Amino acid sequence: MHKEDFFPQFEKLLLPWLGQVMKSFDFHLADKLLNAGVFLSKHQIILLRILSNQDGIPQNDLAFITDRDKTSLTRLISIMERKGLLTRKTCESDRRVNNIFITQKGLEETKTAFPLIINEIDKIQHKIDAQEIKTTIKVLKQIITFTNRKELPITILK
Length: 158
Hints:
This protein is mainly alpha-helical. The protein has one domain: Winged helix-like DNA-binding domain superfamily/Winged helix DNA-binding domain (Arc Repressor Mutant, subunit A, Orthogonal Bundle), CATH 1.10.10.10. The protein has eight helices and three strands, in the order αααβααββααα. Strands 1-3-2 form a three-stranded antiparallel sheet. The chain is globular, with a radius of gyration of 19 Å.
């Protein structure tokens, strides 16, 4: 059998392109941030973004919000704590719960990184017709609706 028999023509499907676009942008953005002296990973940036909007989130909730398993999230938080970006505090009412807070240094890094990120997005989107952007956003919102993922945290959709 030929390879085509096993795989539909992915280049004609929308959703596989979303993954390729995000991976391409991730690499592009990582290079731009590194060149600007911002030493944050995509996952660190996501965590800082969430905590800059809503500080003191329980670690288990962050695992759900970021769709990371508890072990990898714990490792990420530990790395970010060593960098001075986050702090972990035991919940007074339930000693089993760790709440995660952004530090002043984390806020400063966020304030440095996000204008660079927005600038890169603007540079790329500037090359695309405004109506096409509007239509694409509408289609992407429809896809979110079609997947019935109403439990997506508002912090990542803002």
